[in-house]
Design goal:
By secondary structure, the chain is an alpha+beta fold. It has a single domain, classed as 3-Layer(aba) Sandwich (Aminopeptidase). 37% of the residues lie in helices and 27% in strands. It has 7 helices and 7 strands; from the N terminus they run βααβββαβαβααβα. It is globular and about 40 Å long. The termini are far apart.
């Protein structure tokens, strides 16, 4: 079952994020890795900035989360994480299929360039990597992340982004 995440889910969300993000250790640059990967303060700030999180629950236990956020004329998919033990079971796909129809605007996703499994996942769902110059522009316009993260990330855009761009 997919449902909107509520305040009382905060600790479980944080646990899912930090469990799932262990996949990045040794993949992303060492200077971008934090332990824990996401702090309570950072997650609270992200929620405060308007990210609406949804969770995939199975047998009363949240197994994955994904956020959606409108920023101006773009919708961002943010913080997509599935518990390590529940990976490759369709949870990420179910969340993506649930959130995409909610998007009011063309959808963008940013992720680490070296997280090839994440890039492949998004490509499977109709996203394509934008050019380097466009990535730089989009990350600076729609995200609030450090320059080092911009250097080491990619942006993927959903099909309707490219259609709108060529109108």
């Amino acid at each position: 079952m997919i449902r909107k995440v509520i305040t009382t889910d905060f600790e479980e969300m944080l646990a899912i994020i930090n469990d799932s993000a262990t996949a990045y250790k040794g993949v992303i640059p060492d200077d971008c890795w934090h332990d824990p990967y996401m702090s309570r303060e950072y997650l609270a700030d992200e929620i405060g900035c308007g990210i609406n999180f949804f969770g995939y629950e199975s047998n009363g236990i949240m197994q994955g989360i994904m956020g959606i956020q409108d920023v101006g004329d773009i919708t961002l998919i943010r913080h997509a994480y599935v518990r390590t033990k529940a990976r490759n079971s369709g949870i990420g796909s179910a969340l993506m299929e649930y959130l995409l129809p909610m998007a009011e605007y063309p959808v963008l996703i940013g992720t680490w360039a070296d997280a090839v499994w994440a890039v492949r996942f998004y490509q499977k769902h109709g996203f394509a990597v934008v050019s380097h110059d466009e990535k730089e522009y989009l990350l600076r316009k729609y995200w609030n992340i450090p320059d080092r993260q911009i250097e080491t990330s990619v942006v993927l855009a959903h099909e309707q982004y490219f259609a709108k761009k060529h109108q």
